[in-house]
Specification:
Layout (H helix, E strand, L loop, with lengths): L1 E3 L6 E3 L15 H4 L1 H20 L17 H8 L2 E4 H10 L1 H8 L3 E14 L2 E6 L10 E5 L2 H7 L7 E11 L3 E10 L6
Parallel strand pairs: 3-4, 6-8
Antiparallel strand pairs: 1-2, 4-5, 4-7, 5-6, 7-8
Helix pairs in contact: 4-5
């Protein structure tokens, strides 16, 4: 097959990398500049992800109002923590170190909306929504007590519940162990 040179217009083989007449490079811009092409691709993917998943400035609910207050640590030591799932996730997103200081290893009452029910490593859990539709972090509540685990089977996605448990910190999700129902469809309230 034959084509014309991009520079001089003379006929050359279609697969030729350079023109035998004028020595002009016949490769496309992207093939000539592989580094710039890769950089441009990464930039486009980054812009797409930012547009699709949103920036941090619109990250949903704010942490509890006393989150940055130095007295909050002492309040949480003396009384039970009452918090919503969106507030708990927002606190961990704002500062995982501060959230661990305030909540990790402490009992809490957490209210939220169920977005997933399942089992992991033989442990039954339900996932409470962070309030952000595209969030990868939510509140994962694990049940150990058989009576409490039995209640989970009658729940459905979208139910609102209040559970008590011990906050264990954040891996992918904020983990809560030894959960019990305080309010919701299966608590009798």
């Amino acid at each position: 097959m034959v084509t014309n040179c991009k520079e001089c217009g003379k006929e050359i083989d279609k697969g030729a990398l350079t023109c035998p007449h004028c020595k002009a490079d016949q490769r496309s811009f992207f093939r000539q500049h592989k580094f710039l092409s890769c950089l441009l691709a990464v930039l486009i993917i980054g812009l797409f992800c930012t547009a699709y998943f949103g920036g941090k400035s619109n990250s949903g609910p704010a942490p509890p109002s006393n989150f940055w207050d130095s007295d909050a640590l002492n309040q949480n030591k003396s009384s039970g923590i009452k918090i919503t799932a969106p507030e708990l996730v927002a606190a961990y997103k704002a500062s995982e170190l501060r959230a661990n200081q305030l909540y990790k290893g402490k009992p809490a009452e957490i209210t939220g909306t169920i977005i997933n029910i399942g089992s992991h490593s033989g442990r039954t859990y339900l996932m409470l929504s962070s309030g952000i539709s595209s969030s990868f972090t939510n509140v994962q509540c694990f049940f150990n007590d058989m009576a409490e685990t039995g209640k989970v089977y009658n729940l459905k996605i979208g139910d609102s519940v209040t559970i008590s448990g011990v906050i264990e910190g954040k891996t992918l999700n904020v983990q809560v162990n030894n959960c019990r129902f305080l309010a919701g469809p299966e608590s009798g309230e």
